[in-house]
Amino acid sequence: MPARTPQQSHPASGIARVAVPSPLRRLFDYLIPANTHVQPGIRVRVPFGSRELTGIIVAIVDQSDIETSQLRPITEVLDHDELIPSHLLDLWLWAANYYQHPVGDALHSLLPAGLRKKSAASIRSHHSDPSQPEITPTDTDIPTPNSQQNEAIRAVNDSSGQFNSFLLDGVTGSGKTEVYLQCIDHILKQDKQAVMLVPEISLTPQTIERFRQRFSAAIAILHSGLTPRQRLNAWLEAASGVARIIIGTRSALFTPMAQPGLIIIDEEHDASFKQQDGFRYSARDLAVLRARHESIPVILGSATPSLESLYNANTGRYRHIQLTQRAGTASMPTFQLVDTRRQLSEAGLSSDLLLATARHLKQGGQVLIFINRRGFAPVLHCEDCGWTSECPSCDARLTVHRKPPHLCCHHCETRQPVPDHCPDCQGKSLGTGGTGTEQCESALATAFPDTPVLRLDRDATRRKGELERILKQINNGEPCILVGTQMIAKGHHLPGVTLVGVLDADNGLFSADFRGQEFMAQMLIQVAGRAGRASQPGEVLIQTSNPEHQSLQTLVHDGYHALARTLLNEREAAAMPPYGYLVIIRAEAVSMAAPQRYLTLARQVINSQIHSQQLNDIEVHGPLPAPMERRANRYRQHLILKSSSRSVLQSLLTPVCQILEGRSESRRVRWSVDVDPLDML
Ligand SMILES: Nc1ncnc2c1ncn2[C@@H]1O[C@H](COP(=O)(O)OP(=O)(O)OP(=O)(O)O)[C@@H](O)[C@H]1O
Ligand SMILES: [Zn+2]
């Protein structure tokens, strides 16, 4: 399969080491035909088995481990100038190595689709699209930064042209975005470029509009909704320096910049910065590395920084900049816990919450109800025999939806009609359990017939433009009730909202995952942060059946940072991240026994490596069934590795992955390695 073929007659001038899209964790060597100019960072066509593929030259070497006579030549050179700058190529290689992902596949998954094929592309000859009119910024009332913002802006600007990482830790509505805008302005004046990464969901026209109104410079937008052509154009505009500002989701981190100046990660705590399948990299962690490689500053901004970033700030790796007050005249909202054990509730809404809703609407405010379950109810059950609506393919229940009526599995998307009688006992007493967004929406519509009730979740926003339409309606400022999932929690500036109600805070409190409480706290503070962002003060009501829970108490009375300190102490005691490092090796298959058998083999390989390399400080747990063992008809198991040293884990993993890759058993399961996993689910 590798580059071994009968001798070629070409006279050659050196050997190119090429990353080829394959599942193998290695590079392949090819002869460079005579009189051909090649360099690292360009694309070439190479023979691979019986096929021809597009690869990227990673290095030019004098010698190969394979006999020169056995090497095959490059068939075609696709780029004449460097396509991927060496800094970025190094970052890519480092990341593939660190996250233990096949290098060619990692490179390819990050190239715009338009460059994975044979088509030629030239950065040097790329000019801006003439159909795009020159934009004149319309933002005339740029706020004067307050003293904390000024300090932040000065710190970042003073470090331009050199590496520095900043944790911009500013409460919700403190004007972090204004700090980004001013720092970008400074960078643009030096003829440099800035890239800003945002969570998937915040890349709305509103965000983009705010930037367009401020700057006349060309902005490239990179997100998953682009056509391959648009994506390639945006990429080339960034690489050629035509686009001065690049805004995008996770993978935009790998966009080349002709004159890099600044990297910003907005909402750095957000889970979407870690890719959860395939090449499982953390764009946040790699952003810091990229900034170091390119000698530029990086800002990680959040109102609820991840425990990792707080730890890095505490230990001096990041400069900690705090914005403790809301910008302008806005003040922080007040919190109140509502004990749901003491109050009768209609569709999960306590009487306290209903009364508060009525009060705020009467005062002309908008109300936001947060509920982390879409659909009508999480389960359908039979009141006679106890039957529940189980998914036929997962260890999960089918959610009841009313609009349109169906049962649906939120893990595998299996759909079924809603039965009119119990499939087990034929009884007619079917009932629903729990509350989802649809039910909450209709209960609120009944309770407040004169007020518009808007629902914001994945189902309601499936149609293109729907999210924008709903946000626009909210921004007209008229009293309304907004019911939504975490979609509403992220980054939206909703100045009319004065009351936020959280329907159920209990889920996160008892999560089995080690980051469960951290995620719960971030979510609550972010949702709460939508309240009272303009002149009217905000109020937050959190419903729970555990109001005495220590974490909730700490969060509500002493704030996010106090809870973060407690959680960090717990992590330290348990040697969990950021005090220890984790790797999960996952395996799944249609047969129940295969994943366990495979991971038992993996464990043997690991043990023998630990022994032969005399590694200590490694704990191995498992194989264990994943928390949801069966999903989409596949059984899943995992193996957990833990160490206080990243480098020890790396010296173990590299040979282990090489060995496993070569074993025939690896082809009978789907297996993957997750370095620095976000969760153990
Ligand atoms: N110095 C200032 N004076 C007056 N208003 C300001 C100032 N800075 C920012 N603002 C305004 O305050 C509002 C909130 O600012 P911004 O959206 O930047 O906050 P944020 O910290 O990014 O919020 P979040 O964490 O919720 O995303 C915006 O309308 C912004 O224009
Ligand atoms: Zn399912």
Automatic annotation (TrEMBL):
Keywords: ATP-binding, DNA replication, DNA-binding, Helicase, Hydrolase, Isomerase, Metal-binding, Nucleotide-binding, Primosome, Zinc. Residues 417-574 form the Helicase C-terminal domain. Residues 157-323 form the Helicase ATP-binding domain. Zn(2+) 1 binds at residues 382, 385, 422, 425. Its cofactor is Zn(2+). Residues 133-145 have a biased composition (Low complexity). NCBIfam families: priA, PRK05580.1-4. Component of the replication restart primosome. Belongs to the helicase family. PriA subfamily. This is Replication restart protein PriA. The gene is priA.
